[in-house]
Amino acid sequence: MKENLEFMKKHFVSDISAGLVVFLIALPLCLGISLASGAPLFSGIIAGIVGGIVVGFFSNSSINVSGPAASVALVIFTAIQTLGSFEAVLVAVILSGVFQIILGFLKAGTVAYFFPNAMIKGILASIGLVLILKQIPHAFGVDHVFEGIETFKNNDGTNTFSGIMKVFNEISYGATTITIVSLIILIGWDNPLFKKFKFFKFFPAALAAVIVSILLNEFFKASLPSFALDSSHLVKLPVADSFGDFFGFFQLPDFTAINNPEVISIALAITFIASLESLLSTEAGDKLDPYKRRTSTNRELKAQGIGNIVAGFIGGLPITAVIVRTTANVSSGGRTKTATITHGIIMLVCVASIPMLLNLIPLAALSAVLFVVGYKLTSIPIYKSVYKQGKKQFLPFIITILVVMFTDLITGILVGGAIAVFFILRDNYKNAYVTQEKVEEKDGTRTLKLAQETTFLNKADIMLYLDHLPKKSHLIIDGTDAKFVHHDIYEIIDEFKETAKYKDIKLEVVNLDRNLTEKFWRKQS
C-alpha cells in the first residue's frame, strides 16, 4: 500500500492534467450518446460522472476510463420505444449491473484473456481510424451528426464517407481556422524546445487549445461575424437556473416496469454488450499501459456492475469501459486511477457550476484533440509491426479494422475474434500444451518450461501464472523443448518484462528462439 501511495504521489500532477483532458473529450461524447439513445440529455453526463468516480474507485485498473458508450445507444433507443419511458429502462440498467456483478463472481472476466492480440490491435487501430474519419466533418464545421458515434451509418441517414463528402458543401471557415490553430497548439506543445519550460510540461495541451479556441471564436464574433460559430457548433450542455433545477436533471427508475418480461431481455442485451466492450477495453488498455500492469477482469466486471446499478438509480445511461477515453487518458499522462476519478469529479463540478462557460467550447477544437488521439492509435508503424508478424496475425488485424469501419465495434469484435480463432484452431489442433513448473528448494527459483507447442489457447494459463508470481521472486522461462510458440506468447513475455521490473522480479528467458514460429511453418509446408 505504501508503494502504491508513493507511485500515485509521483504521478499526481500528470494524473490531474490527464483527468482534465479526458473530461474535455468525454463531455461532448456523453451528450452525443444521450441524443443517439433518445434519452434525456443529462443521462449521458450522469453516466460519465458515475463511470469516472464510482467505477474508477471500485476497479483495480490504473488507466481505464468508463462512461456511456455508443455501442449500447441503439439498445437504449429501442428499449425506450418498447417500454414506453426512460424511467422503465433505468430498471433494466440496474438489473444489468446485478448480472455483471454475478458474472464477476462467476469469474467470467477471464474470457478477456482469450481475446487474440491481433484482434485487440485491430480494434485499437480501427477506433483510431473511425475517430479521425468521424471528426473530419466537425473539424470543418459540419455538426449534424452527434458526437461519439462508432457505427458506419450515421443517425441522419448518411454514413462515414458520405458524411465527409457533405463537408465540401457546408464548410465553415471559422471552424476550419479553429481546428488548424488547435492542431498547431496540440502538436507544437510536445516540441522538446517547449518541454524545457515547466509550464508546457504540466499545463495540458488540450486545455490550451480549448481556451484559445474560445477566445478565437469570441474574436470572430466581435471582428469577423462571417467566421463566428453559433450555438449549433458549440458544446450543448443543459443549464439549470438553480441547484434545485440541477437536481431535477436526475431521474428515478420506475420499478413498476419490473413486471414486464421485456425488461429482463433488455437487461441481458445491455449486460452482453457492456461486458464485452468493457473486457475488450480493459485488455486493450493494459496493452497501452506503459507499466504493463494487469487488470483483474473479474473485478472490472464487478466495478462496471456497481456503476450501472448506481447510474440506473439516478437516471444515467448504461456504463462501459471506453477505449477512446482510456487512450486519451494514457496519451495525456494518466498513470493511476486518480486521473479517472478526477475526470468524473471535474465533470460533476463543472456541469453544476459553470455550464454556460462550457457551452462556449467549439466542437472543432475537440475534434482536433480527437485527431491526435486517433492518430496515436492507428499510426503507420503499428501496421508495419503487425505485417511483419505474418499473415496469420495481419489478416485478423486488417479484417477487424475493416469490419469495425463498415459496421460497428461489437460486430468487429465478434468477426475479428472468429477469424483469429479460425487460424489458431486450423494451425494448432495436433498437439496439446502442458505447463511444467519446477521450483528449486534452495533459493525458491521457479522454472516455467514451455512444451513443444505453445499456442494462443494457452494464453490465459500463462498470463494467470505470471500474474500470481510474488514480488521479488526469481523466474526462468525455458524454451528448450519448444518447437512452436505463438506470437501472443512472445508478447506476453515481453509485457511481463516491464511488470517484472515494477514488481522487482528477476526474470530470465533461456533457449527461446524468436524465429521458432517461422521455422515451424517452413517445415510444415
Automatic annotation (TrEMBL):
All residue ranges annotated as the SLC26A/SulP transporter domain in the record: 12-400
Gene Ontology CC entries for this record: membrane
Membrane-spanning ranges: 12-35, 41-58, 65-83, 89-106, 118-136, 171-190, 202-220, 263-284, 305-324, 344-373, 394-425
Listed InterPro entries: SLC26A/SulP_dom, SLC26A/SulP_fam
Location in or out of the cell: Membrane
Keywords recorded for this protein, A-Z: Membrane, Transmembrane, Transmembrane helix
Any Gene Ontology biological process: transmembrane transport
Membrane topology: Multi-pass membrane protein
Protein name, per record: SLC26A/SulP transporter domain-containing protein
Organism the protein comes from: Salegentibacter salarius
